[in-house]
Amino acid sequence: MRMLDIIDAKRNKITLSDEQIRFVVESYTTGDIPDYQMSALLMAIWFNGMTAEETRELTMAMLHSGDQLDLSDIPGVKVDKHSTGGVGDKVSIPLAPLVAAAGLIVPMISGRGLGHTGGTLDKLEAIPGYTVEINEDAFKRQLKEVGCIIAGATGNIAPADKKIYALRDVTDTVDSIPLIAGSIMSKKIASGTDALVMDVKTGSGAFMKNEEDAKALARALVDIGKGVGMDIMAVISDMNQPLGRAIGNALEIEESIALLKGEGPDDLLDLVLTIGSQMLHMGGKATTLEEGRSILESHIADGSALERFRMMIEAQGGDDTVIDDPTIMPQARYHIPIIAGEEGVVTAMTSDKLGLASMMLGGGRATKDDVLDYAVGLTLNKKVGDSVAKGETLLTVHSNREDIADVERLIRNNITIGKEAQPITLIHDIIV
Fold first, then answer.
1. Contact between residue 428 and residue 238 where contact means Cβ atoms under 8 Å apart
2. What is the pTM of this model?
3. How much is the pLDDT for 111?
């Protein structure tokens, strides 16, 4: 079997066989296929796509390239959630302990941020001492004792995906639906979960800018999961403005704690409850979504979800006094208000650009080797639909440098004030 023939077939829109796909994944992982040939195939896939069968086989080939986590000895239903990423998207952080408080096992294997999207692991590392690199034995022990964990991948899960993704990142082939679907699902299937809720973002701050592409990705993810017997569904949620009011690592931890205290922003709470109620229904803890939502609200009200978060932090080596005093996390030296120059209504916020503003302050990575400043970011005083008076604060910049002219210019160019705003719908669709 020759790689050149496989490239030629995909370039000419010929469906690849299971054997060809397995050959590519196995040979590239072992180094027998050079980067330049794999790059050519990735670009052919980007242009011509893959069938559902090809995507499923790609997923399984990447899955079988490494270890699989066996959680069968842990009693209870294991339910996970995964987001395709966005700005201010800290849903996983309050969601895991909240759902665990309701009686499910929540094994979350999360990632780091790159560019304008924040990474869950980076946010949690703003908590002093919090460890995300955990071996398999400790991973399982924490699930048994606490009921939830948010950590990086244990062992050697899907090494083919890791190698292929690194090449996609430098060949501009990241935003391919079959490649995204295969990447996500190979890791999720390998993580040993019984059920999975996908949060597929759409809008200016998402990889899928339009709803049609988001639905196509969600459909691909759900089909792959169902094809291997996983209980799976997807929520299409909005990313045309940042989620919640905090953008930045320590700031988003503080907002997550506030949510578990019953003080979080409405849109973040709504999405947490929407996804969490789906998880409870799939895990057999609620007969209806309405009942699931009510159960979750009760665990916020009685403090048990917050206590479960405290237990998770302590189990992973973090300083759990952050629950009572978020200022133990890194704090920015400067808090600079961005003042409205006119009155009106906020009609638009370009999410990815506001995420980029946080990255420019040091809150995100332009390259994988960049060192994060956990303290910096933005807190939004106004969101789409809010009225604004001249001289009011639109948002506050948390910075460790006093001169933020470049950041302020980017922010002002991406917040629009007009006469009337179209309301933003948070939940666009449900894919089952």
1. yes
2. 0.93
3. 79
